[in-house]
Design a protein that fits this description.
This protein has 374 residues and is mainly alpha-helical. The chain has two domains: 213 residues, Citrate Synthase, domain 1; 104 residues, Orthogonal Bundle (Cytochrome p450-Terp, domain 2). It is 55% helix and 3% strand. It contains 17 helices and three strands. A three-stranded antiparallel β-sheet has the order 1-2-3. Strand 1 and strand 2 form a beta hairpin. Helix 9 runs antiparallel to helix 14, helix 11 crosses helix 17 and helix 14 runs antiparallel to helix 15. It is globular, with a radius of gyration of 21 Å. The chain starts with 6 loop residues before the first helix and ends in a 19-residue tail after the last helix. The relative contact order is 0.16. Bound molecules: acetyl coenzyme *A. Acetyl coenzyme *A (ACO) binds next to helix 16.
Length: 374
């Protein structure tokens, strides 16, 4: 469509859900939905998940967007966790009893807006500090102070449990955070870029991102995946349960994607992390085998249900299995997703800001034409 056309002239070109619409240039990530490939600043996600820690990949994403970005992001992020912890004083029991993503979002909203590195680091630190605090206060326990010397993943697990995580557990969470750090122009990243384009500031952009992420069609899916696995209970029940869910008109959580027409590459990156964790945990291999059998049944059924629409496993299915294996409660899964994705939101917000262009699409009016006022 060329510039300068009126909205009425665009009628008939409305792409519902902006499907197929290209709305930004980005140097951050490339999602190839036909080949099932995700590239982050030139690196395949499978390689990053096992070789770069979260701090490394956050640095990779933020590089070039902040002149004063330190080469050692681990130390700066550890210090930012300590600074973010000051906001935990505002967490009362009433707020902690809310859905954790709502409570964490409320605490993030207390952080001042800004476009600089200080704001970016506080925002990057915030979900890792606020999520454990919300879970602990809701359970009647005192929040645990961050340890800036630990990795982001290890500290989050320690602040949640009150005791240190094993190296294997910290590595598994780290692999998860890397896997979900960025993913093209997904709904939450687009929301963050729209807000950033108004020059509202990074805090506002991240709040927009987390608000979009919480929906069950986006980052709110893994909690319901656990509910589905628990309701199925045993492999033999899978087929009947899944068929009746589809008959009710429900969507199978953890399957289907707007861009991928093949398997989401992040599903296998996460499965590899679960396999590693399974080597040191007795409960994980059985749960993984069960999840795999449910996945196979779901894929068979979805092929029959929608022969014209390839519906494959997305990132959320094995996210649920991995975060559950780490002992994190399903109600916290969206917050943990936000812990990783905040890196992408901040980088995209800065990239959008650098264009200097307000995001402002048009709509086609389909309501009644001029009415006489009463
Ligand atoms: N289960 C059953 N049917 C499905 C599913 C599913 N998981 N996904 C899509 N469909 C069906 C839809 O009902 C629709 O059928 P219809 O044409 O008869 O109405 C058709 O496939 C196309 O669906 P759309 O919603 O138009 O496709 P879209 O690309 O917008 O959907 C989405 C992508 C929202 C992720 C969808 O696949 C879904 O709801 N999946 C389940 C929720 C989920 O797992 N979300 C996490 C996604 S990953 C992420 O955001 C991090």
């Amino acid at each position: 469509m060329s510039k300068g056309l009126t909205a009425a002239q665009h009628a008939g070109f409305v792409a519902e859900g902006l499907e197929g619409v290209v709305a930004a240039h980005t140097v951050l990530s490339d999602v190839d939905g036909q080949a099932g490939r995700l590239t982050i600043r030139g690196y395949a996600i499978e390689d990053l998940a096992h070789r770069a820690g979260f701090e490394g990949v956050a640095h990779l994403l933020l590089d070039g967007f902040f002149e004063d970005l330190p080469s050692d992001l681990a130390a700066a992020l550890g210090a930012a966790r300590v600074r973010a912890f000051a906001e935990v004083a505002a967490l009362d029991e009433g707020l902690a009893r809310r859905d954790p993503v709502e409570a964490a979002r409320a605490l993030i909203a207390r952080l001042p807006d800004g476009d600089g590195l200080d704001t970016a680091l506080l925002l990057l630190a915030a979900p890792a500090v606020f999520t454990p605090a919300v879970l602990r206060v809701a359970a009647g326990e005192a929040p645990v102070v961050p340890d800036p010397a630990l990795s982001h993943a290890a500290d989050m697990l320690r602040m949640t449990r009150g005791v240190p995580a094993t190296d294997g557990e910290a590595r598994a969470l780290d692999a998860y955070l890397v896997t979900v750090c960025d993913h093209g122009l997904n709904a939450s990243t687009f929301a963050a870029r729209v807000v950033a384009s108004t020059r509202a500031g990074l805090t506002s952009a991240v709040l927009a991102g987390i608000s979009a992420l919480k929906g069950p069609l986006h980052g709110g899916a893994p909690g319901p995946v656990i509910e589905m696995l628990d309701a199925i209970g045993a492999p033999d029940n899978a087929e009947a349960w899944l068929l009746s869910a589809l008959k009710r008109g429900d969507r199978l959580m953890g399957f289907g994607h707007r861009i991928y027409r093949v398997r989401d590459p992040r599903a296998d990156a996460l499965k590899a992390a679960i396999r590693q964790l399974a080597q040191t945990s007795n409960a994980v291999p059985g749960r993984l085998a069960f999840a795999e059998s449910v996945e196979q049944a779901a894929l068979r059924i979805l092929r029959d249900h929608k022969p014209d629409r390839p519906l494959d496993t997305n990132v959320e299915f094995y996210t649920a299995v991995l975060l559950e294996a780490l002992g994190l409660p399903p109600k916290s899964f969206t917050c943990v997703f936000a812990m990783g994705r905040t890196a992408g939101w901040i980088a995209h917000a800065r990239e959008q800001l650098a264009t200097g262009k307000l995001v402002r699409p048009q709509s086609v009016y389909v309501g009644p034409r001029t009415k006489a006022a009463a």
